[in-house]
Amino acid sequence: MFSQLVSRIIILVLGNLYPAYASFKAVKSKNAREYARWMMYWIVFAIFAVLENFTDIFLSWFPFYYELKILFVVWLLLPTFKGSSFIFRQLLHPYLVKNEQEIDQYIE
Predict the structure, then answer these.
(1) Residue 106 burial by CB count (10 A; 0-12/13-18/19+): exposed, middle or buried?
(2) CA 26/CA 86 separation, integer angstroms
(3) Judging by beta carbons within 10 Å of its beta carbon (0-12, 13-18, 19+), is residue 38 exposed, middle or buried?
(4) What domain range is 7 assigned to?
(5) Distance between CA 44 and CA 25 in Å, rounded?
(6) What is the pLDDT of residue 2?
(7) Which pLDDT does position 4 carry in this prediction?
(8) pLDDT tens digits for 13-62?
(9) How far is Cα 9 from Cα 50, in angstroms, rounded to an integer?
(10) What does the buried/exposed string (b/e) look like for 4-21 if buried means 16 or more CB atoms within 10 Å of the residue's CB?
(11) Which residues contact 43 (CB under 8 A, 6 or more apart)?
(12) Are the CB atoms for 22 and 66 separated by under 8 Å?
């Protein structure tokens, strides 16, 4: 229970507050590269947040589950690793391009 609470707080701060401020700075500076970086981050983080609800139900018993979630968010964030860019370019972008019309139809 304690690690779940601590994990939730850390992910809220690292996964939401810091990226929100960094996104603000990127928009303010009009730096297209930083803007694209944070857009990719938010797309990947949104998918993570949805999946997290299901994985919490089924995998919370797994040893170090909450610590691994924190490490994953840090990996997404740090420009050294470019985790969000990797996931976006290798997984999400090809999937979204392939299924864009079906997704648009579903949304309409």
Answers:
(1) exposed
(2) 20
(3) buried
(4) 2-107
(5) 19
(6) 65
(7) 87
(8) 999 999 999 999 999 998 999 999 999 999 999 999 999 999 999 998 98
(9) 17
(10) eeebbebbeeebeeebee
(11) 84, 88, 92
(12) no
Helix (H) or strand (E) holding 67: helix 65-77
Give the number of other CB atoms < 10 A from CB of residue 36: 13
* Alpha-carbon distance values, 75 to 28, 86, 94, 106, 108 (Å): 25, 10, 21, 32, 35
Q: How many domains does the chain have?
A: 1
pTM: predicted TM-score of the whole model, two decimal places: 0.91
Q: Are 44 and 92 in contact (CB under 8 A)?
A: yes
Q: What angle do the packed helices 65-77 and 2-12 form, to 10 degrees? A: 10
What are the structure tokens assigned to 68, written together? 């691994």
**What is the spatial distance between Cα 19 and Cα 75, in angstroms, rounded to a whole number?**
13
Amino acid residing at 108: E
